[in-house]
Specification:
This protein is of the alpha/beta class. It has seven helices and 15 strands. The strands form three sheets. Strands 4-3-2-1-13-14-15 form a seven-stranded mixed β-sheet, with helices on one face. Strand 7 and strand 8 form a beta hairpin.
Length: 288
């Protein structure tokens, strides 16, 4: 039995972090996984120090909790990826904590967990939000996206830098489709992918107005590669609106736990038996 506790989109809520860690310790889980949007604050909050404040949050607020969990459950492994509301300045801090044995950064990386391989990717298709550190074209140029009407910025150690030409900025970077193809998958039946963007047209990508806004590249990648399990986030309200926190694409089980910041949204997973999943709010469900 390989047991996981999965959650996403905590946005710096230490109460939710504590609930996740306590659950992982109580269940003697093998791994606790955070699926992106780790830190507090968004550019709309007008904090010019956000690229500095987010690494400080991880280093001075989150790392003491990680250390407590490791003391209470020494074999627990903690994995994470950033999300689109995190500045890229968090990556060096995650690497520092990884060297200290506290957390393992899965973004564009792979790690072994028993018989399984974990891979991760933080990138999402263009959004209407200002921060663009982890945004990429979704496979191909989408010139109609509404995000171009907004002031676009990226975080640096010196603060925010304005992107004068967002389309040219994305043109200079690999697409989400290209980034997915770079993930190392040798044995799909024993692979878990932690990808912040959910796949398009599923129970896991439903926006508040009922639209499906997930990534078409992520969906195509899942259809082609068929990993055992994919873990997502990004669209907080999707489980409430779709009525479920999981879906299937072929042989792949996909999960988005959701988040409402009123109570923990945790999914309890036995990697060796995916016929049943349990959610801290929605309860135990059979997977068809």
């Amino acid at each position: 039995m390989t047991r996981l506790v999965y959650t996403s989109d905590l946005h710096g809520d230490l109460g939710l972090y504590r609930s996740a860690g306590e659950a992982a310790i109580r269940l003697r889980a093998d791994a606790l996984i955070f699926g992106g949007d780790l830190c507090p604050g968004t550019p709309s909050g007008a904090s010019l120090r956000l690229p500095l404040e987010q690494p400080e949050f991880i280093l001075y607020r989150l790392s003491p909790l990680l250390d407590e969990w490791k003391q209470a459950h020494p074999t627990l492994r903690v994995f994470a990826i950033p999300g689109n509301d995190d500045c890229q300045t968090v990556l060096p801090v995650l690497e520092e904590l990884e060297m200290n044995g506290l957390i393992e950064n899965l973004h564009q990386e792979s790690r072994t967990l028993g018989a399984y391989t974990l891979v991760g990717l933080s990138f999402v298709p263009p959004t209407p939000f200002q921060l663009k550190d982890f945004e990429r074209w979704d496979g191909e140029r989408d010139a109609g996206t509404e995000s171009y009407a907004y002031r676009c910025i990226v975080g640096t150690p010196r603060g925010f830098v304005v992107i004068e030409d967002f389309e040219a900025y994305l043109d200079s970077l690999p697409s989400l489709d290209e980034e997915l193809r770079r993930l190392a998958i040798d044995d799909p039946a024993h692979t878990v992918a932690v990808v912040h963007a959910p796949p398009f047209d599923t129970h896991c990508d439903v926006l508040y107005d009922g639209r499906h806004i997930g990534s078409k590249s992520v969906r195509r990648w899942i259809e082609k590669r068929q990993p055992r399990l994919t873990l997502h986030g990004h669209i907080h309200e999707s489980p409430k609106l779709s009525g479920t926190f999981f879906d299937r694409i072929g042989a792949t089980t996909i999960i988005n736990p959701g988040c409402d910041h009123a109570q923990p949204h945790l999914v309890f997973i036995d990697l060796d038996n995916l016929t049943e999943l349990e959610h801290s709010i929605y309860g135990r469900k059979a997977v068809q």
